[in-house]
Amino acid sequence: MNATPALELRGLSKAYRDTTALESVTTTLAAGHIYGLLGRNGAGKSTLMSLATAQAFPSAGDALVFGHTPYEHRATLARMCFMKESQKYPDDYTVKHALASAAIAYPNWDQAFADQLVGELRLPLKRRIKKLSRGQFSSVGIVIGLASRADLTFFDEPYLGLDAVARQVFYDHLLADFAEHPRTVVLSSHLIDEIADVLEHVLLLEDGHLVLDAPVEEVRGAVTSLSGPSQAVLDAAAGLPILARRDLGPVTQLTVRGRFDAAARAAAEAAGVGVAAESLQQSIVYLTRASEASTTTAHTSTLSGGTS
Ligand SMILES: Nc1ncnc2c1ncn2[C@@H]1O[C@H](COP(=O)(O)OP(=O)(O)OP(=O)(O)O)[C@@H](O)[C@H]1O
Predict the structure, then answer these.
(1) Which of 111, 123, 187, 206 has the fewest Cβ atoms surrounding its Cβ within 10 A?
(2) Does the record's keyword annotation contain ATP-binding (predicted)?
(3) Tens of pLDDT along 8-19?
């Protein structure tokens, strides 16, 4: 595997007239992994992708793709694919035209794979792009994003309008094809739990700041909920940072930062305490709230996580 990072962002910022869309984002995306670029509406996800793919210029800082500034380097541009949620196509383009253009543009294009995806996603090849439903439009992006096999592929909210079957087709093919043809994939989303099983690493943006940059395995299960008789819950949580507490008469529900291994879980359960690892989405919500509360200056959380 190439040791040059797929993407290196150094103090990357983007300001529009009255909005700071991205504020001094610094991080490194190693080659050969699937990253989730997460954040609420307006957090800066699309802006980050546009800057990384040379579709917009930064106000400060830079984005290096495989060691090069992409807008100065044609060969690097050819290694990237960016499927935008608002991808533009010429007015008279049919699905077939869009796929034919992609076949020319992307050096690693796999036509057989594209044909298979078109079939599974039931895309009408002869229909004009502008006549497609929202889900069909997203499917075109999925076919191009996957079949291009670009070394660095960005999918900006790829599932918009897709039904459950089509979303599963996407996730299944992404994982299977990634295993056979390792590359770097960045998926933006605000539906964190839906894509959690696909991701290896999460980057969370809030108001243009990178507030979390951590492997999924560090985040998932880093927050645990305990519920049961108050004293037993407090005993089970001894020494762990408490992120939230709710008392309902004699019952207490605590959310703590920390993992419960099999022995700790068994001991807590023997004392009548229910133990549940929080989902990736809930863990991210709790951890970012906690980091906001404990520091007002440092923006990026790395997770050390208390364990039990
Ligand atoms: N061309 C522009 N001119 C002015 N402001 C812009 C422009 N593009 C984006 N912004 C602003 O920058 C911020 C970040 O926008 P961006 O589209 O990157 O967010 P996002 O995380 O992709 O959001 P969403 O999930 O809603 O797609 C928002 O406040 C947005 O309104």
Answers:
(1) 111
(2) yes
(3) 999 999 999 889
Ligand 1 centroid distance, CA of 219 (Å): 26
DSSP state of 196: T
For residues 279 and 255, the answer to whether their CB atoms sit within 8 Å is: no
CB of 214 closer than 8 Å to CB of 55: no
For residue 51, the CA-to-ligand 1 centroid distance in Å is 12
Q: Which residues sit opposite 215 in a β-bridge?
A: 201
What is the CATH architecture of 221-294?
A: 2-Layer Sandwich (3.30)
Going from the Cα of 299 to the center of ligand 1, the distance in angstroms, rounded, reads 20
Q: What is the tens place of the pLDDT at every residue in 119-169?
A: 999 999 999 999 999 999 999 999 999 999 999 999 999 988 999 999 999
As assigned by CATH, the class of the 7-218 domain is alpha beta
Ligand 1 in contact with 191 (CB < 6 A)? no
Cβ–Cβ < 8 Å for 8, 63: yes
Amino acid found at 236: A
**Ligand 1: which atom is nearest the Cα of residue 49?**
18
User: Tens digit of pLDDT for each residue in 31-64?
Assistant: 999 999 998 889 999 999 999 999 999 999 999 9
Give residue 185 CA to ligand 1 midpoint distance, Å: 21
